[in-house]
Amino acid sequence: KRNGMIGNIYSMGLALQALEVTKDFYAPRPWDCAQAFSVVYTHDYQQPMAIAQVLPALVGRSYLDVAGLDCAATNNMSPSRQLPLSPVLGTHGILRDSIQVHYSIKNTLQGSPFSDSISVKVPSGSTLLQVMEVAAEEKPQTFSFETELTSWGVYVTSIHGLAASTEDRTYWQFLSAGNALDEGVGTYKPHDEEHIQAVFSTY
């Protein structure tokens, strides 16, 4: 979907590995990986877990190849494809002009319902996490939030005092134009005048 995206940017690494390994079993036509790899090449990967999962696919291998590796011969091995490092490792550009991001939070699931919005200015290239931090600085009673660091990056556990719960199967979902974001708050970079919604949701 979406010009080669498989699920979201986090699922791409394992999906590419699986599709490459099982390509001989596809019917009625071969899998064309060009679109999927074009998504990977243009993404600025920053999460260590995502990088670890996508790198094998970029050199035409999968985690399954580990069982057959000849460690004595690895010194003479070279990647099967010449790929630029920057799309995988990412680069951090200089932050320039300011942008305005519209950010709202909404809860209709638990306790007293609430729906609040704010518009904040941040440097161009800022992440959604930085947008949330500015919103929390300007209106801490409304937009305060808590996070925890996971192997996939920053995970938002609570907004406006309302915490996600695995027992209740609730979480904070982030949307843009009604669509779930493909990246987490620590790496997603909103564009000027974008409206980001944090909606307390269930799964």
Summarize the structure.
With 203 residues, this protein is of the alpha+beta class. The chain has helices at residues 12-21, 34-42, 48-58, 86-89, 128-138, 140-143, and strands at 98-107, 114-123, 145-150, 153-159, 162-163, 170-176, 179-180, 195-202. The protein has two domains: 11-68, no CATH class; 98-202, Ferric Hydroxamate Uptake Protein, Chain A, domain 1 (Beta Complex).
Describe the protein in words:
This protein is α+β, with helices and mostly antiparallel strands. The chain has two domains: 11-68, no CATH class; 98-202, Beta Complex (Ferric Hydroxamate Uptake Protein, Chain A, domain 1), CATH 2.170.130. It has helices at 12-21, 34-42, 48-58, 86-89, 128-138, 140-143; strands spanning 98-107, 114-123, 145-150, 153-159, 162-163, 170-176, 179-180, 195-202. A five-stranded mixed β-sheet has the order 2-1-8-6-7, with helices on one face. A three-stranded antiparallel β-sheet has the order 3-4-5, with helices on one face. The longest helix is centred in the first third of the chain and has 11 residues, at 48-58. The chain is elongated and about 60 Å long.
Topology:
Layout lengths: L11 H10 L12 H9 L5 H11 L27 H4 L8 E10 L6 E10 L4 H11 L1 H4 L1 E6 L2 E7 L2 E2 L6 E7 L2 E2 L14 E8 L1
Parallel strand pairs: 1-8
Antiparallel strand pairs: 1-2, 3-4, 4-5, 6-7, 6-8
